[in-house]
Amino acid sequence: MLETYLPIFLLLCVSTAAGGGLYLLSKFLGRKTTDSQYMDTPYECGIEPVGTTKERFPIKFYLIAILFIVFDIEVVFMYPWAVVYRKLALFGFIEMLVFIGILVVGYIYILKRGALKWD
Amino acid sequence: MEFPQIDYVAILPEIIICGLALLIMLFAAFLPRDRRWITGHIAWFGIIVASFAVWMNWGTDTRTFAGMYSIDLFSSVLKLIFLLGSLLVVFMSENYIRLHKLEAGEYYALIIFSLFGMMMMASAADLVVFFVGLEIMSVALYVLAGFRRSDPKSNESSLKYFLLGAFATGFIVLGIAFVFGAVGTTSIAQMFDPQQYTLANSFFYLMVGGGLLLIGLAFKLASFPFHMWVPDVYEGAPTAVTAFMSSGPKAAAIAVLARVFVVAFGQHITQLSPMFWSLSVLTMFTGNLIAISQTNIKRMLAYSSIAHAGYMLIAFATGTAEAVNSVVFYLLTYTVMNLGAFMVLLVVEGKEDGDNEITSFTGLGRRHPFLGAAMTLFLISLAGIPPTAGFAGKFFLFKAAVAKGQIPLVVIAVINSLISVYYYLRVVVVMFMIDTQTEFRPVSYPAFLYVALVVAVLGTIVLGVFPTSFFPFDIPLLASGR
Amino acid sequence: MLSETASLVFWVIAFVTIISAIFVVSLRNIFHSALFLVLCLFSVAGVFVLLDAEFLAGVQVLIYVGGVAILMIFAVMLTSRMTNSEVRQQNEQKALGALVAFSFLLIVTGAILKTMSVKGGFGLSPSPSVTISTPHAIGRLLLTNFVLPFELVSVLLLVALIGAVVLAKKDGD
Hints:
The structure holds three protein chains of three kinds. Chain A is mainly α. Chain A contains three helices and no strands. Chains in contact: A-B, A-C, B-C.
């Protein structure tokens, strides 16, 4: 059973090795710099940096992300329905319509309230 | 494949309430801002229609949705209590929303969704349905608590409620998992049926699950030691929402406690009794003793609601069907009188923010006799003095407890009621005995709030004088399920 | 029972889960905590795989790792002075908290061990309908016996959606 997951395991190993290896390589082979003034500034293609890299995100991103998760979960519920769709016949279809219908009201709501508008 | 039979007539009230919430959302989306007050009128109208649908189904005794949903007298009575509470809250909110310029559409939609969740909890015959219903109710309440976004106190209230509530939810899920592990089903009816399972080998396991469930429900009920959130959340939330929070979720939690601990674990109720006994005593004392030192009326009512949770738990220490019936009646009286007290608070509060000190009631009785008299009535009812609803509620509850031999518990509860008289009457003293030097804050009587106030006053008196003519005291706890 | 390999895999996954969970609640940089949360949630997906619950494992990765954890990282980035600063994750009540957590662990372990010893194995009555947890079985159950909770979930999602819009959207239209 677990053999099915061998590729995933290999992928994990390779990515860990690649990431960790590169880090270790640069640590051992790289030149040690004592001057940290320029090391700590953000990389701006040689131009003087104008601010820090750790800026606050606007809350708009967050709202979109929450809305994404809501619909993400909806889709997860559709998957098991889809695989037995034929056996569930009309009953399953109608129940799914109700399920989606309720969320469509939510979708119309966020559209009309402009929650997806960027400005 | 076999599909479950769905009895659409029996679940008509739920369909109406869900449709109502969706309709209000659509109105909120499509109406221009200055016309959204209409949603409030749709809300109260819809609630009345749904109440008629419950009335129509009176006496239905069936389980539908593959046995997951039980429509019986017990759930119908509770649903009417929820509907009445929500109706009064909608009436109360109309003016509040206008004064504080809140988003009417979302507000009413969330109230109705929360009501929907409570109705699901009242009828749930399966722990999964109960859990999802609980979440619908709670999520709506978390948002409502923080509805005044510009008010830091409201934000604090919402955040505290959410974090602690989510934690309590974790306990409930774990509890359901344990119960499922012990008996192999989540159906309350199957757990109840002794032929369906034997507990010989997994009793301890089941009790761990039950204990975890109890932790989560005690949080929603605001019982000791899970009451810490109550004063802060009640104080910060918009006053109309506080009123809703203090009545609805408590009643829903009681409904589930009854279904799980008295019906499903009914065989073990005598073993569980000492636990409920101590919970009840500790909750009563915590609520009443701390309420004495409060100067803010919202905080005082918060501690009073903790104390009332303690009285309600007496029914589970007793564990008979009679006790559960009387606690349902107690919920009805508590809903009416508690909402009434909040209505007077709303009128007095008016447009002012955050000033809910007891001193702001100074001289109310002399300047506005009706308001003062109404508040006095609600407060003596909360204290349990005859001939009010609060007295009748306590009377039947204590009677059921005495019948099962819980005399020490009843004595403790009576002592607690006496303690509570002190802090309730202190407000009355402030209202009538002391006159303000300055002019009393102008008070307006918005029409809907006034109607709700009259309903609450009448309810408090009528339930106190003729309790048996309005309430069936022989409710079976679960549909026989044919 | 698990095979030799599977039980080795289980111990590795359990170790990673617990260590990363400890890091989540103890690191002073909250951003690093969030990253360890991703690792923790991911290894829980591994536990699901070991329990033959592939669908749940997929959902775990899709929603928790791909959605919820990312949302948390967003939340950290939204909050100023959170990404750099050192946050104290404990307070004066940590001894009491540890005591409560430990006694809870004892009770739960006791319950599990006691149940096992009685019947040799988990003496629970298995419900035939949930022994196979492929998407097929889940889909069948969701749309027959569990159709009510299934519909309720959509209402719950809708409430969450309104809540997000109410609390996170800017004032005005």
